[in-house]
Amino acid sequence: MKLLLLGPPAAGKGTQAEKLVERYRIPTISTGAIFRKAMEQMTPSGKLAKEYIDKGQLVPDDVTIAIVRERLAEDDCKNGYILDGFPRTLPQAQAADDMGIQFDKVILIDVADEEVVRRISGRRQCGECGAVYHIDDNPSEKVSLCDKCGGTLVTRDDDTEETVKIRLEVYHSQTEPLIRFYREKGNLVTVKGQKEVEHTTEMLFQALDK
Ligand code: ADP
Ligand code: ZN
After folding, report:
1. Is 28 a residue whose pLDDT tops 90?
2. Three-class secondary structure of residue 53 per DSSP
3. What H or E segment, with its residue span, contains residue 190?
């Protein structure tokens, strides 16, 4: 089973990926998460990625493709995987094709720009375990502390107001063309992601069972 989650920033790709992991028992490969870990550990690729990510820009295709290629070669990917955040440009989609990756389904989680901005401005993430919260939609029990591990909740460096605008522009210009790319291959399904998490999950499972 190979699935791809497409959609704007904060569409809920990571959150829905967790539901899919439970259902299909295959790992999620999130390029955003891989880059954040590399940035935290200050590896060479992490330092390079940070230059782009903090400005709301995409990490160059060659770097991203190499990292994904390496990750997908690992043992846990042999029965399939869920890709979250890759491919995100046409050259990346072409590279995935060239690697022989054929997605069973490409799931577009559709969310309007205003909602993206609202979600990102309230998003908080645990610095320790990576759990994601929203100050209104999904607050932690204790202010600024993670329910799961007690770690401190922080705002991602790329979740500023200016950066969100750039990320949305980048999404519309560089990632949206993938919608047509996969629609033409015939494996695209669209799920409305505007409402709460549970609603999106329900729509998602319905779309996958069709
Ligand atoms: P979001 O979906 O909220 O924008 P992600 O966690 O998926 O955030 O990604 C964070 C950042 O990491 C992106 O804004 C981008 O700079 C970088 N990134 C993630 N995936 C890719 C990719 N496939 N190609 C290039 N850059 C990427
Ligand atoms: Zn935590």
Report:
1. yes
2. helix
3. strand 188-192
Tally the residues of the chain.
Answer: 210
Beta-strand relationship, 81-84 and 28-30: parallel
Give the tens place of pLDDT for each residue, 163-198. Answer: 999 999 999 999 999 999 999 999 999 999 999 999
Q: What is the pTM of this model?
A: 0.91
Q: From CA 173, how far away is CA 179, in angstroms rounded?
A: 12
Tell which residue, 136, 123, 134, 131, has the closest CA to residue 151.
Answer: 131
Alpha-carbon distances of 1 from 25, 77, 100, rounded to whole Å: 10, 10, 14
Query: Could you tell which of 52, 58, 119, 123 is best to mutate to test the pocket of ligand 1, judged by most ligand atoms within 8 Å of the CB?
Result: 58
DSSP 149-179: T-PBEE--TT-SHHHHHHHHHHIIIIITHHH
Q: Read off the pLDDT of residues 47-78 as tens digits, 9 standing for 90 and up.
A: 999 999 999 999 999 999 999 999 999 999 99
Q: How far is the CA of 28 from the centre of ligand 1 (A)?
A: 14
Q: Which two tokens stand for residue 19?
A: 């539901």
Q: Is the pLDDT of residue 210 over 90?
A: no
What is the per-residue pLDDT for 153? 98
Catalytic (active site) residue 165: no
